[in-house]
Amino acid sequence: MATPVLTASDVSKRFGPVQALRGVDFHVGPGEVHALLGINGAGKSTFIKILSGIIQKDGGTLTVAGREVHFRTPEDAIRAGIATVQQHPELVADMSGLDNIFLGRETAGRGLFARIDRAGLEARAEALLARFAVPLDLRQEVGQMSAVEREAVAILQALAVDGIRVLILDEPTSTLTEVEREDLFALMNQLKTRGISIIYITHQLEEVFAIADSFSVFRAGTCVARMSVAEARESRVSLAELMLGEAVGDVFPPKAGAPAGEALLELEGLGRPHEFTDITLQARRGEILGIFGLVGSGCDELSKTIFGALPAARGTIRVHGREVALRSPRAALDAGIFLVPGDRRSEGLALSRPALFNVPLANLRRASGGFWALRRGRLRRDAQELTRQVALHPPSLTTPASGFSGGNQQKIVLAKGLYSQADIYIFVEPTVGVDIGARAKIYAQMRALARTAAVVVISSDCDEVHGVADRTVALHKGRLVAPAARGFSRDDLLMAGIMGEVAA
Ligand SMILES: Nc1ncnc2c1ncn2[C@@H]1O[C@H](COP(=O)(O)OP(=O)(O)OP(=O)(O)O)[C@@H](O)[C@H]1O
Ligand SMILES: [Mg+2]
User: Fold this and answer.
1) Count of CB atoms within 10 A of residue 94's CB?
2) How far apart are CA 164 and CA 257, in angstroms?
3) Which ligand minimizes its atom distance to the CA of 393?
4) Whose alpha carbon is nearest atom 22 of ligand 1?
5) Strand partners, 384
6) To pair with 246 at 20 to 30 A between CA atoms, which of 74, 96, 168, 499?
7) Which CATH code fits 264-499?
8) Ligand 1: does its nearest atom lie under 6 Å from the Cβ of 45?
9) Which residue has its alpha carbon closest to ligand 1 atom 6?
10) Measured from the CB, is residue 403 less than 6 Å from ligand 1?
11) Is residue 254 reached through a cis peptide bond, with omega within 30 degrees of 0 on the bond before it?
12) CATH number among 3.40.50.1970, 3.40.50.10190, 3.30.70.100, 3.40.50.300, domain 6-244
């Protein structure tokens, strides 16, 4: 075997009472695409932050190309040839894409970085971009960009230096559509042929078989398995089982047994110029309605319009059969509509506040009735119950939301939605970044909600929409693609969302 480019042995890290990593052994070879797997909170991002110099390990050793290294800053890691795109890349919203790329590289202007000239970097960024196949104007402000475009900027930022040996991507595909994911994989394969190793974190297990050569599984802060993908295929091991440490049942709950009840939410001819047109649909009590749409299909805007965050230019919205004018999210909440937004970190969470503070935000009325002491006790009990339902880990209500792993932050927003006791629930991309075990729990929750409410699941994950919903439609370039009488099969739904056509 070739000398590994990067090794870690016996690495540990503690955050206060939480032992995030213990005795981690890990290696990646030259030109190897290595997937790093584990449930939410297993320690993946913590390990990556150590490899990229953002935080320091408490113990253990790291080597790069056989030599021991000590990373005290991100620049140390970059200088050693390790480039990282973090789980939630921090870009400066009011600067252009190009400026963000430079910002990451100019830093103190010492040593290596003093020699990087702007023209050279710009040329390199443009050259990389040409291969990336995501149409992107680097002169645009990052704040104006979509999630996909921001991810692309972050990847370009990571790659825009010389001598990169290892590229680390912490859940890059969670914001990408199927098409863009293919582009990313193509780019990864190119880098691989140039001898660059890639460490790749994902919760989409089928991606492991599509792109990786090998994988490691983290569980509770230790590496419990390392295997080649060929080996895994041959022995038919279940990746989900390795991650969870136990057998997994069906991810999706059974479909609704009874026929759906009355229409709780009716959209008629709803439209906003250049975003979506002539949307007519109903969500009924007792059912989960699935809307499959890629990024840019208008799904995001549609969900925000139903939630009163964007005004409709045309058409009507009826709730319980009565026409409503939803001029604000407050008005939508009062009408009994709750939205779990897609871009949760910017729209759904007060990051510096404890989980306990975040959960009742959406339902202050429920949280504020009765005497203060009673209220506090009830709130705590409700919140505890909810954290159990979404499998929040650690199940702590006093930890600031920012102290949770990425997937667990998502669960806090979901808990907030469940606490809202609405009649109509709209979940946008509900399980992005959520591990497979917790996903099953969340789908089961949706099914439970749908017993008394109407649930709408809007997602760019076709399998999720098809798996969880009783009835599905697709949104393509702002138009609804409705199924033929027999309903959509999984493949028809995919076609409808990607091509805008119903199969003959
Ligand atoms: N800044 C922090 N302060 C306190 N605890 C933290 C901090 N960062 C992470 N942790 C804890 O360390 C553990 C590992 O978290 P980490 O973010 O590495 O998980 P992960 O495997 O990346 O999960 P996910 O799939 O949800 O992104 C978790 O229990 C988390 O709550
Ligand atoms: Mg993470």
Assistant:
1) 9
2) 55
3) 1
4) 45
5) none
6) 168
7) 3.40.50.300
8) yes
9) 403
10) yes
11) no
12) 3.40.50.300
